[in-house]
Amino acid sequence: MKRSTPILLVIVLLFSISIPAPSRAQATNSPTADREGRWREDLKLFASEFPARHKDFKKLYSQPDFDNKMVALQKDIRTLSDSEIALRLMRLVASANVGHTTVYLPEMKLGFWPTALTLKWYSDGLAVVGAAPIYREALGMRVLQIGSMTPEQLLVEVAPYISHENDTWLREQSPAYFRNVEILKHVGAIGEDGRIKLTLAKPEGETFTLVTGPAGPDMKQVSMFDALPIPATLYRKHRDSYYWYEYLADSRALYIQYNKCANDPKLSFKDFAADLFNFADTHRVDRVIIDLRFNGGGNSTVISPLTNGLKDRKELKSRVFVLIGRATFSSAQLNAVELRRNLRATLMGEPTGEKLHSYGDVRIIRLPNSGLNVQYCTNYFRMIKDSDPSALEPDVRVAMTLKDVLAGRDPVLEAALNKQFTNKPLQPIR
Hints:
The chain is 31% helix and 19% strand. The chain has a six-stranded mixed sheet, sandwiched between helices. A three-stranded antiparallel sheet has the order 1-14-13. A three-stranded antiparallel sheet has the order 2-3-7. The chain has 430 residues and is α/β, with parallel strands linked by helices. A hairpin with a 5-residue loop joins strand 5 and strand 6 (207-212). The radius of gyration is 23 Å and the shape is globular.
């Protein structure tokens, strides 16, 4: 959810709702139920529904240019592969530079096959964080080259296909595209045989090459956190949980990780907050740390019991730190803004993945024959009055490097635990 104004209560969310569309059975029974006909049905649906439903469509897209591209795409169906048609749609939708407005990247269909590696950007470069067991030697390595391109060169090539509003979100999303064989072929990083040669660097600096290709549908991966001797880190303790907390007795800090702006079916956030404050009221708590670094959004009002509880406790509300990062998006970003505004919380970490003024309240158009999901926005939200920054900037910027991760360090949490309190007013969010 997002706020429509800085004062009104937020009621916006990213839950996906499909619009009515012909079913696959209906499409298959139509007279044009061949490949070309099925694509024509999908493209016609998209060309009709997407402009009609997206908020401010004519501000974000040139209607003549949009129409011309759709006519050209219809004309080229016979000469394009399924993946090329999908990529043309992805590029067209992403051209608005709206993070929430996107064609979801297909996986293992329409010719899109991932490799057996999972990649992630850190502040000091791209790294291999997951791999099929046969490639486990690559885990924890920095990526120097993928095919014929460096990661930075490849980032430029895939950027037009990724819906993003800032470089932070582009880097957060791009590893999924870097590991897709069809996309690597499309941008010219690898050849048509689908073989991917990677140049990797070990932590000591030694380089070596690895050749991989498309992963099979049942190929499992192992995480570098499971395969390597990486010391346990607090932020990874319950990453699959919607929310959890832990008291750090040595620093008398209450650490709260909020990973999803939604109510856990097993424990409502209201009950979670009640338990948390029962604990806080019977223990000495010198600081509260709310970790939003892994929260991609949802319903922004869910956090209200925590925010209201902190407001009611003078001894806590002036000692709040909020951790943010590149995966902090949508409603989670809004929560960070409101904690900063209402509790004077200090934001620590890295810039978020979205502009402060942005489109949201999304819905889904599902193209029935191809199965492509097109996400569009139905509302626009302004967070502040006078400017339009590209991201929510932290008050204290702290980067996370691959070296930190491999050493089991969390410099962002460390900074929050060591930050001295001050009565100096925080600068307003601009």
